[in-house]
Design a protein that fits this description.
- The protein has two domains: about 160 residues, NAD(P)-binding Rossmann-like Domain (Rossmann fold, 3-Layer(aba) Sandwich); about 120 residues, Orthogonal Bundle (N-(1-d-carboxylethyl)-l-norvaline Dehydrogenase, domain 2), CATH 1.10.1040.10.
- Helix content is about 50%, strand content about 15%.
- It contains twelve helices and eight strands.
- It has an eight-stranded mixed sheet, sandwiched between helices.
- The longest helix is centred in the middle third of the chain and has 29 residues.
- It is globular, with a radius of gyration of 21 Å.
- The relative contact order is 0.10.
Length: about 300
Amino acid sequence: MQLGVIGLGRMGQIVVDRSLEAGHDVVAFDLDDEAVESAADAGATPAESVADLAATLGDDKRVWLMVPAGKAVDATLDDLDPHLDSDDVVVDGGNSHFERSLERAEACSAAYLDCGTSGGPASAEEGFSLMIGGPQWAYDELVPVFDAVATGPAGHDRMGPEGSGHYVKMVHNGVEYALMQAYGEGFELLADGRYDLDLETVARTWNNGAVIRSWLLELCEEAFELEGSDLGDVEDYIAGGSTGTWTVQESLEQEVPIPLIYQALAERFDSRNEGRFSRRLANRLRYGFGRHEVARQDD
């Protein structure tokens, strides 16, 4: 299959690389010329502009957007839409709000797939988890690419109609907040509790057969190995918060109580004020799965 990829940051480059490895032809564009050169070096066909990418794809265009949520998505669609028709398919692989995805799907000339993408840059080798919303025929058309970009056929599915992919990903991120908070609080008690414990050892032991074993717990083990049981100079500051805020807002609208997710979001915002060990661990875990910069204490 021929696939156009717009947005060649860390996540977009993984889409390019995994698609190429699976034997698909990729046409790549980014505002950063060096990113385009890197994709070309990997085997993609470079494009000089969105219009050039569309022209290179020819009929029945399949285009994957991996640009920052918000205005960048709208600007890209404004440039792309004049070159699209109803037989084409556009995938938005970013963290867009599901209501904006509904609006974009209605306005877009092509079939629109909102694709929640989980795994972060750390999943470059294993593949992503993809939560996809949109027309069934468009999803079916892109299955060979989804198989390549995800962990495999079990790593992606159609959640439902337009908006549902980003809706499920929004809630996924809320759950992620709560899980990180739970691990952080548990390790904070161990760090400040009755015994002088090696937290890397605790995390490794839990990861081998314990009920609470998980990838996030593996990242806890990695964090303690690299930073020490006291997390060294990792700052008590957790960035982000938009998708968690959306999750809490949706819970209020739907009158569904989600106290753990709400409290995790509140702790994230409170981290901008005073220091806690649990939030320092959450700060470090965000590097583990998303390669987000680790905020560190001043020397």
